[in-house]
Amino acid sequence: MQSAQNAGVPAGQWSSRFAFLMAAIGSSVGLGNIWKFPYMIGTSGGSAFMLVYLTCVMAVGLPILMAELALGRMGRQGPIDTLVSLGRRYTGKAGWGAIACLGVLAAVLILSFYSVVAGWSLAYIPKLLTGQMSGLSGEQTAATFGALLADPWALAFWHALFMLLTIIPVARGIQAGIEKAVVWMMPLLFALLVFLVLYAAVEGDFAAGMVYLFKPDFEAITMDVVLAATGQAFFSLSVGLGTMLAYGAYLPGHVSIPRTSVVIVFAAILTAVLAGGAIFPIVFANGLNPSEGPGLVFVTLPVAFGAMPGGALVGTVFFMLLAIAALTSSVSLLEPIVAAFASRTRLSRTALAWTGGLVTWALGFLTLFSFNIWSDVHPLGGTRTWFDWIDYLTSNILLPVGGVLLALFAGWIVTRADSVQALGFRNPLLYRLWHLLVRVVAPIGVVVTVISNIA
Ligand code: PFF
User: Fold this and answer.
1) Quick one: pLDDT at residue 1?
2) CATH number at residue 415
3) Cα(274)–Cα(192) distance, rounded to whole angstroms?
4) Full-prediction pTM beyond 0.90?
């Protein structure tokens, strides 16, 4: 534990398997599953996207998640130090730490836009609470959302508030800050999502929503859909940048990594499907546009909240929980940034959390302005705004590449005997399947997808 302390990571472990699970689920379940997944389905091929996403999660995301947790527990330090020391142990070289540096870059970039979007859900809390959105049509909710995006000052305020909420628990440390919050908030979020699906089933066009989500449409599967779904698999599980490596460092030795990983993946898929199940029936019942893009959740659900009895309250609670789900993910983005610098500078954990948070907050203005004064600015030509580029670069390139490098490290560099022990599969066949996936299947699949898209 001493080395972990040196790395600026508070000594100690999650107090229980349940606490770890809630924190890991808290990291993976966030805006990615509730905000991004539904709108990606809408913009990237409907059920075809769903099909490819599920395949990627099982064949690529799950085995890499296991690899990350196992490497983290083996190293028991911040992500960079873990890879440096494991790299030295197995190859005599320290350069493996570079993989985690790539991860830190990805974490900074993701957190910069994540905080802006999470700010939207904070902004919606007073809107719903005060009844401003009661009884609105789809057109009117779209106008409300448009007005929010058009106001850089308001966005900057909510973005700053969210970043502040992220910095505080990270500065306080894993157990005191993160654990206490997640153990009761995540179950509440699930319960509310189930309620919204039931509501959508009764009041929305449930059949149309289900067809849109689940009716297989193999013809719509294009290389673009595959890349988008691959990126989303990494993003929604929080794998590829070292978050799970950082969290694995606190994982008690007796906890089963395979079983825990399956639970995390199941929770991520379930949330995404529930979010889709709540949103699309409302979209179709109200003649809204499923390809609306990043505003989808913010335009559709308020229509439902505005129409149901007690909707102002339910809507308020929903956006609070969305912000909280985002918070349990954003702390997991700031944590590896802090851990990475802790052993390399003399700064305290608190100073690092503030510095990392402020730098990332400033970078967030690239995203923030993409929705208003810079909406016509297309760096590198084409149609992508700054936000589109940051999102594309992180989800579709940095996370998949980082994830594959970690998979290769766990599959080829760590010895078989050590990985058998680190993962603790009961069934040797399942271990072999994992080994095949991280050594061959995931790397080839991801590299082919990424290269064919860049080309
Ligand atoms: N998985 C989070 C979400 O779906 O909202 C986002 C995320 C968190 C991505 C942490 C990557 C990460 F390391």
Assistant:
1) 31
2) 1.10.4160
3) 10
4) yes
